[in-house]
Amino acid sequence: MSDLFSIFEYQFFQNALAAAILTSVLAAMVGTYIVSRKIVFIGGGITHASFGGIGLAFYMGINPLVGAAIFGILTAVGIEWISEKGKIREDSAIAILWSLGMAMGIIFVFMTPGYTPNLMSFLFGDILSVGALELYLLLAFCLLMIIVFAVFFRPILYTAFDPEFARTKGIPVAGFRYLMSVIMALAIVISIRTIGIILVLSIFTIPQITAMTFTRNFARIMPLAAIWGITGSVAGLLAAYLLDIPPGAAIIFFLTIQFLVIKMIMIIKTHLQRQQ
Amino acid sequence: MSKALVILEGVRTGYFSETVLRDVDLQICPDDFIGVIGPNGGGKTTLIKVILGLQPVFSGKVRFPGGRPKTGYLPQVSQIDKNFPITVKELVNSGLKSKNPWFPHLSFRQLTRVKEMLDEAGLKALSSKPIGELSGGQLQKALLCRALIDRPELLILDEPNTHVDKQFEQELFGWLKELNKEMAILLVSHDIGTISPMIKTIACVNGTLHYHPSNQLSEEVLKVYNCPVDVIAHGPIPHRVLKTHGHE
Ligand SMILES: Nc1ncnc2c1ncn2[C@@H]1O[C@H](COP(=O)(O)OP(=O)(O)O)[C@@H](O)[C@H]1O
Ligand SMILES: [Mg+2]
């Protein structure tokens, strides 16, 4: 057991822990919006399209997160624009951007001369190498999102739920939709560093659906999802250390186990209540 | 005669290049109670969206002589995502306008009004429940509260009597009769039979709009307005629905 506690003394583990907690809080807010609007598929499109930006950034020798952010935002805004215009099927557009982004990423990484970047760390995340600068970025974005969600909670909720009605009440619906597209893209891209492209969507969805077994109130899902995200990711991180397995995958595994156990308990509980 | 709230003149609209409604002329005055009937896909919902400014027009004019009136909108229930995690209270809150768009929070007085309205509507016990747990009638009641909370001048209801029982329907029509003393009402319904005594005028919408300045749709009147209606009998009360118009 002393083994388990000694790990907390290491800087890299403290950073990883902070990254896990901040990513959970960020994903809780943005993920609640994604899950409530049933646009997980859009999140998938943004995530995978951003890989094209990572590849291009490697090729051009710039920071991969910048490339990912640009591709992510363009994809998110593009999907919103397509769904607003309605001329192309939204799901087809997402599928195209999804695979195109992955293809571009692979091609650019392949073309990058002399240097083969660690693809695995982008696909599966590399939480143990998160540095101070990245932590501050994550913290700053997290705080900004807390402010945005606190101040604009009503218009965000109402445009997500019934955009046409919201428009009749004078809410600038298109503005909020695009704002949320950009926020989704940035939140996903920032989280890729911690948890990777393949797995990032789960931290934006599993804690939320876990929270939704307890409450169907948007405002309450957010903090509850943050709690379930933190417990799952910290447990995953510790398990990764103890069992020497990849942290990103361990985190997702624990988030899922947590969800299944809670779901099971809730089902048994309602079953017992019905029998009484 | 009071000034019209909304005037539609020669409106043509649709989706992409496809025209759904053409040559629509309609005036809505402050004390109107217009019943809009028509077959599925006839363009009733599209007409509502034109009035609400949600649907752009291809040609023609939509005018608001006294400025855009405050509207209360009750959308078709199929437009509502019942699985969305929103509570009844929050749903009704969404009918209110915030004073400050940059800090869009509700005043204490506004929140008190929501509470009072939920009490009045008999939804007090359900106010913290998610909308997914409501029955068809309860959901319509909550949506009506959302439409009314901002004290509209024009109340627009899109098929509020779907998925509700006959008793709720009668209750609803009773409220509408009272509400009509304070506001104009435009009620869309695929079947007008049970409500016709309360409404003042009828509009048939099927590709275009035929206005009937009466709540009686006799065969003679319908012939004059070129608007054939079938009498059908399902349920205890025989009622009238619009037949496909010959001139489409
Ligand atoms: N968003 C849309 N995109 C394309 N076509 C639409 C859309 N909404 C309605 N329509 C078409 O417009 C016509 C009228 O629809 P609607 O106004 O909903 O009729 P109603 O409410 O009378 O049933 C239908 O043919 C429908 O298919
Ligand atoms: Mg309709």
Question: What is the topological layout?
Answer:
The complex is a heterodimer of chains A (276) and B (248).
Chain A: H1 2-6, H2 11-36, H3 40-60, H4 64-85, H5 90-111, H6 119-124, H7 132-151, H8 153-161, H9 163-168, H10 173-195, H11 200-203, H12 206-211, H13 218-243, H14 247-275
Chain B: E1 6-15, E2 18-28, E3 33-37, H1 44-51, E4 59-63, E5 71-74, H2 88-93, H3 108-120, H4 136-148, E6 154-158, H5 166-179, E7 184-188, E8 201-205, E9 209-212, H6 219-224, E10 229-232, E11 239-242
Parallel strand pairs in B: 3-7, 3-8, 5-6, 6-7
Antiparallel strand pairs in B: 1-2, 1-4, 8-9, 10-11
Magnesium ion binds at residues 44-45, 76, 158 of chain B.
> How many runs of DSSP E, i.e. beta strands of chain A?
0
Order of helices and strands of chain B: EEEHEEHHHEHEEEHEE
Structural class of chain B: alpha/beta
User: Residue-averaged pLDDT of chain A, rounded?
Assistant: 93
Shape summary of chain A: globular
Structure class of chain A: mainly alpha
Enumerate the spans of chain A where pLDDT stays under 50 for 5 or more consecutive residues. Answer: none
Strand order of the largest sheet of chain B: 5-6-7-3-8-9
Task: Give a short summary of the structure.
Chain A is mainly α and 276 residues long. Chain A has 14 helices and no strands. In chain A, helix 7 (132-151) runs antiparallel to helix 10.
Tell me about this structure:
The complex is a heterodimer of chains A (276) and B (248). Chain A has one domain (2-200): ABC transporter involved in vitamin B12 uptake, BtuC (Orthogonal Bundle). In chain A, 82% of the residues lie in helices and 0% in strands. Chain A contains 14 helices and no strands. Chain A has helices spanning 2-6, 11-36, 40-60, 64-85, 90-111, 119-124, 132-151, 153-161, 163-168, 173-195, 200-203, 206-211, 218-243, 247-275. In chain B, strand 8 (201-205) and strand 9 form a beta hairpin. Chain B is globular. The chains are: A mainly alpha (276), B alpha/beta (248). The interface between A and B is medium-sized, with 30 and 36 residues.
